Amino acid sequence: MANLSQTFAHYAILAPFFISKNEAKMSLTSPKIAIVMGSKSDWATMQEATQILDQLHVPYHVEIVSAHRTPDKLFQFAENAQQNGYEVIIAGAGGAAHLPGMIAAKTIVPVLGVPVKSAILSGVDSLYSIVQMPKGIPVGTLAIGPAGAANAGLLAAQILAMNNAELAQRLHQFRQTQTQSVLDNPDPRI
Asked: Where is substrate bound in this sequence (predicted)?
């Protein structure tokens, strides 16, 4: 996908809508969203979340944190998440997919879990691993694959927008543009 945030003169072109450069300078100066994944292979899915956040000009932090290969790093990341300023964590994992649940067990920062599609069971194993959390340790679970990652990015932005009017306006613009795109193209044969 092409770079969605090329800047020209006084406007940043953020496909699919326009906002001024001043509007693009949100009060979100440091990342309030962390996007973590279990392995490098998860990036193909998780980059969908970053593309949405890039469109909305929301800063984020990206890192590989494996529940099984780097458990100490996972605990350190989760235990320090709130202190590091994160207000939402998006965690994607495939297969056994324990990453979102283990992070949620070690922090009170909301965790959005993205099941990554696996070769063997098409991501159903990942979905069950993430969605079946015990009472008291919630993980907001999204759809399997790229759509889930994109929606995790949107949901994280919506959570931040509850206390950020500029971001809320961008989300409204995003929705309006999305709606208009459907209305402008009613014939699927074209």
From this structure: 39, 42, 69
